[in-house]
Fold each of these.
Amino acid sequence: MEIPMVQLAFWFSPLLQGENAAKNAISALTEVGATFLDYDENFERYPVLDPYTLLTPQFRRFEIHHHEFEDEVIKGSLISRLGFLMLLVPADHLDPQIDEQHAQGLLKLAFELYPLLRPLFAWVDVAGDNAPKEREIANLQLRQLLWANFYGPEYVQKYGRGFLLNAPGGRKEKLPDGGIAYILSKSCFDKTQRISEKEIVDYLRPKARVKVYQAMPSL
């Protein structure tokens, strides 16, 4: 059985595509305070002073540390074909407060990384097999509302700035490039703590048939 994880995913970032994808990913993560990690001959982790030797075009999985997560290691991966960057933090602690802190830490990183990477779409939520897929994101479809949704300017143009900013509940913020962040609730693990899922879905239905995302674990 896989360990539950909280995930931050950036999709179709122009800066994460092509031959400079690894360089741009390293630059963005370093700018927001991440330290890249590697292992010595005794399998002990140590900070990598030159991460460009670690994250190469042939090796796109990595581990980083960030002060928001204390001693927790963040696992990451980069797929330049999709302009895709993913960060994962475990969410299987006995103390739910720690899981929530990790989700909030990834949300903070999402806000810091978004203007550096300018993705088509980004999200923070519990990882699962039913997360949004490549094709629906590329086609600007709204099928699932995650806990934290970062819609790039193309999404805003398709669905309307007012429509997204007036969506019920949660927190809505304008992003530097004209995008919009829509966070459903204060808690990642209680998405409808202040407003019902039905109210959210009913509001969005005239333009998009959506449902509030609930992670399905990998088999």
Note: The longest strand covers residues 5-11.
Amino acid sequence: PATETRGRTWAHVADVIRARTGIDVPAAGLAAELLAYWNAATADAQPLPGAADALRAAAERKLELAIVSSSPRAVIDRFLDKLGTADLVKPRVRIGGDDVRNGKPDREGFLRAARALEVDPAEALVFEDSRAGLLAARAAGMRSMFVTCCADDVARNAGLATASCSDYRSLPPSFWDGLVAGSLDLHGRSFT
């Protein structure tokens, strides 16, 4: 199922395919082919509603930004360029699946980002759309916002998150200021 592979590295997806199908293809080669196919298939992908504006709003308020993805760093760079927001996220805090030893649901990527930003993991807020990412955020001791518009198995995974939003446009205008002030109680909140 998609829940098992969503938010995971291409190496993990290749291992799942090999185990389920029994095909005798080297995992690294299959992962590379999957990534190439995905890159081609997502060349015209549309951003999540409000994503670019959310990055800009957070940056305007001097919030530290990082991106942790199971995809390689080159994919992060490509999508930031496409959003027109590459200048908002420093290259040193773009953590791709190729930058870590253990991908999501392991906490390694999120903890690496926190160290690079010099922030306490408990003060961080992770925006995630996958079970693997929510588990990684929880393991890292970070709060999480489950972005449900493109997520699988929302009912099953919502309980892993601190809060949820349907997409970035559903966050109220006061959201970012509340984060900065530390006055925003996210526990159990749902922004729709």
Note: The radius of gyration is 17 Å.
Amino acid sequence: MIGSAIGVVDILAIVAVSGGLLLAGVGGRRYLRLRAVARRAVETTGTINGKRIQLVRGAGGSQSYVPVVDYEYRTPTERRDGTTVYPGNSQFAKQFGTESAAETAVADYEPGDQTTVYYDPDDPAHSFLIADPQTATAVSLVVIGGAALVGGMLLVV
């Protein structure tokens, strides 16, 4: 029988390279999407209706806090409601480690106040109050994926 068996190191290398490519791809895609949404966002005026901090429980008992601001705004064709502070797929785009940090993020928003609202003209239901995309998570995925990729390639060498 001629040939070689796949060893544990080879399997680890394959898993590391595959996982690294996947993480880097997901992170890169998320980063580019957030930047594109922020770039094409259209400004309008909105009215703050309320604000709150939402507790999010994660795996292993971890907790994070999401600032939520209820507001209404107008596009050229309709009136809409929004809750998202930062650009992203949902109001959970930016989570804070402490309740006080989340409260600080929305401290300037008071019911009845007028504010600038940004919305995506391609998807007017996607609105947010702070046009700075929070890309730290996406960049972290790219970095971790890149490290796994390099580590897996080093295992092969």
Note: The chain is about 40% helix and 30% strand.
Amino acid sequence: MWAGVTARFRTFHQNLRLTDDQINEGTNHHAGVRRSLNSHYYGSSSESANSFLIGSWGKYTRTRPPRDIDLYFVLPYEVYLRFESVQGNKQSALLQEVRRVLQGTYPNTNLRGDGQVVVVSFNRMSVEVVPAFLLQSGQYWICDTHDGGRYKTADPKAELAHIATVNDN
């Protein structure tokens, strides 16, 4: 009996896992987005600096079919200071700037600012970029464009650490 359950579970698990091609495609997408933003904001060609994955890609819980890749991109403090002088919805203006930067790299790709993220819609999956400012506490300020705009405090690394601890236990 257990042999049949084990075989069915393995088949079920294999059907959920992303294929190597899907992993490579997603990795290329988020690496390209990171490189574009690093080039603009830091003068670097890094595909990983100043950013980290969250959501299913950050937690290694991604499943087929892949839909989106969630990415925090940490902006320089100088960008925060520059947007503090903007009249009106600073957070919306910041999302639109990040969208324009990415539009320069991906001119034929649909991009939009949406609440807290900039969505880069590739053919089979999207990259959702969360522009963030690192706080001294280790938490982040992220944009919330609703109701005139504000920054929300987020702690995605604490969430990932909690999930890892629960999994280990």
Note: The first helix runs from residue 2 to 16.
